[in-house]
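Write out this protein's structure.
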Amino acid sequence: MCNSILVRMTARLPRLHPFLLLALMLVVAAAPARAGQGGYLIGPQDVLVITMYDQPDLSGRFAVEADGTFTFPYVGRMHAAGLTGPAFEAALKERLREDGFFMNPQIVISVGTYGSQRVVVLGEVRRPGVYAVSAGIPVVEALARAGSTLPTASGEVVVARGDREVLRLFIQDLEHAQAIPDLMLRGGDTIFVLRAEQMFVFGQVKNPGAYPRPRDATVLQALSLAGGLTGRGSTSRITIVRNVDGGHRSFRASPDGSVGPGDTIIVGERFF
């Protein structure tokens, strides 16, 4: 399933605008590499949940400050940023033993709030910006936090990952797919919602003009976006004008025919 949904960009990069490609390359280069390094790395503004079984009064939630440190009873300030949960757990246990407070402290540490985990959502969304997320958030949830996609969105998103991987996804597939680990966002990911390519509908339709072209668009979809046919319109007299090799080619089309990027659909009048 994963291969049917995820489309690696390497074979399709020429279709993206050069400025978008440059932006994605810069984002990928600057993003922190959190995956593949032994698990999630604690960061500033994360909230740690520390459970101490042999001393319950010391259990609680502790915020990591902007400098990457936090304060714990008995040991004072410790550096946590950049460590995995298990590594920091071991460091705190060792610190408590070294200071002579506990012989064998029983501690479990987890991340309660991922304040340091942020994704960037750009492109055709209502509220582009930077959003704090928890680990493993789906792409569709990040888009929802950004106010959902605009009518001008193409239904495709590009995800630039911190491990120098770029993915191209279809929102419709994501909404109907099961939760797949490869589709979950990581801190530092950037999501870019692409603008839809346009198609044009003229002739005997109620609202002629330019419209965003849906994925796998058909003539019937295009006519629906244009408000449907007028009383004089005929579904048997539909012509598509398409740019081919720098020129134009016209051909008759049926309502279930496909519409390409930049196509112009012209609905003729019925004979009677």
